Amino acid sequence: MRRVRIWSVAAVYFLCALLLAGCWNRIELNELAITSATSVDRKGEDWLISFQVVIPSSISSGIGITGGGAGAPVNVYSTTGKTIREANARSFFESPRKLYFAHNRVLIVSEETARRGLNPVLDVYLRNTDARETVDVLIAPGSARRILEQMMQISKISGDGIREINHLESKFTSVLPEVKLYQLAMDLASDSGSALLPEVFVAGKSDASSLKVFESTTLPAKIKLGRVAVIKKDKMVGWLSRKESLGVAFLRNDVKNTMLTFACPNEENKYLTLQISDSSTALQPSLDEGKMTVKARIKGKAVLSQSDCSSMDLYKPEIVDELETAAEKDLQRFTNAGWKAAQRLQTDAVGFADMAHRKYRKQWREWKKDWDHYFSTIKLEVSAEITITNVGLSNQPINVNKLREGKK
Q1: Were 249 and a residue from 56, 225, 254, 266 both cysteine, which residue would form a disulfide, CB within 3.0 to 4.6 Å?
Q2: In what residue span(s) does the Spore germination GerAC-like C-terminal domain sit (predicted)?
Q3: Read out DSSP for 122-179?
Q4: How many other CB atoms are found less than 10 A from the CB of residue 103?
């Protein structure tokens, strides 16, 4: 009896072992092509998809002179198809490895693609499990593939470098937004139906796609961030300048840190710079005879980081008050410029639709039928309150000549 029980238990264990998956679907690392960046262009009616693939051997040995003649750290190639997924699948016709997108950092979309519509791009990334919806999305004014081909200073992999530039700019100046793909989808699905995307472009007359550029201390062409693209119902409708973009960022309450530079009072060609932090914007809508007025109140703390104003004693409270007033007027100009640009494009880039929907639910039933038209009739009143908390260790700009005279 005991022997039968032992055999029964052994049979159960054997059957359970048969059900275990094991490593039947394993993929070795040397079978994968790690993709660090992807770009989307249009070629007629076809999709042109480009992949920036990391070369592990070049990354480990370095590049340029320090790498002892190692190859390029990345390889860029393109495929075409009637759909994005078909273009991806055609990579098997020329790549010895399967594309792996878990380390994909950025998605660069050409302006032409954005103006023709982003819905297919969103569909691919949100439908398939192998795509990363956390990639940073940027717009290129010309060829998106060209961005992937450029080498960058400091960063070996330009895909990682572009993401870091976008992240640091958003964190420390807040002029351009850092937009993940899922955030783009959420913005376009919101009541406003609009979104903002940063521009990335190649500055310079030459090309930086060869390792030879590292033989010089300055690259002939550099990857830079520029303006902000305005997306409306999945299509790009125009650009915002950096000044207009900063104003929109204040209205959206997206400013973390930024810099304001303006002229010294009563002095020509001399400027000072304030670093704004702890910024917040409160929006207060009101309705009068069917027309909405929105009061935007901006508050922030500032630190004087540089001053060339020789005629100002920064230790006097009235002088600090004067600087605060000048900063507040500057903020009002930026904000009004961004507001006028959004109305000019007839796009609710500031996201007032969500506020209107929450505040005036009954009226929203009519407004949403033609929100773009109603949005253009909204009146905006901007007020700012800036408090300078620190002017530094000197009440006058540093002047070495005066310092020398003081020693005599």
Answers
A1: 254
A2: 228-392
A3: HHHHHH-TTS-TTSEEEEESS-HHHHHH---SS-SSHHHHHHHHHHHHHHHT-SS---
A4: 15
What does the alpha-carbon distance between residue 257 and residue 269 come to, in Å, rounded to a whole number?
Answer: 26
Does residue 303 contact residue 258 with C-beta atoms inside 8 Å? no
Instruction: Please determine, for residue 64, whether its predicted confidence score (pLDDT) is greater than 50.
Output: no
Cβ–Cβ < 8 Å for 91, 99 = yes
The percent helix, strand, coil of the chain (3-state, each to 5) is 40, 30, 30
d(CA 24, CA 5): 32
* 14: number of Cβ within 10 Å: 9
* Domains identified in the chain and CATH numbers: 28-240 (no CATH), 242-408 (3.30.300.210)
CA distance 118 to 115: 8
The CA distance from 367 to 374, in Å, is 7
Q: Which residue type is seen at 362? A: K
Half-sphere exposure of 311 toward its Cβ, with a 13 Å CA cutoff? 8
**Considering the chain, what is the average pLDDT of its residues?**
86
Name the pTM for this structure.
0.85
pLDDT tens string 240-267: 999 999 999 999 999 989 999 988 877 7
Answer yes or no: are the C-beta atoms of 42 and 113 closer than 8 Å.
yes
- Residue 56 gets which letter from DSSP? H
Give the residue-averaged pLDDT of 45-64: 78
Contacts of 361 (CB under 8 A, 6+ apart): none
In angstroms, the CA 53 to CA 42 distance is: 21
Confidence of residue 294 (pLDDT cuts 50, 70, 90): very high
Backbone angles phi, psi at 135, to 5 degrees: -70, 150
Amino acid at 367: W
- Sign of the dihedral through C-alpha 325, 326, 329, 331: negative
Distance, in Å, from the CA atom of 40 to the CA atom of 47, rounded to the nearest integer, reads: 7
Q: What are the tens digits of pLDDT across the range 65-81?
A: 444 445 788 889 999 99
pLDDT higher than 90, residue 211: no
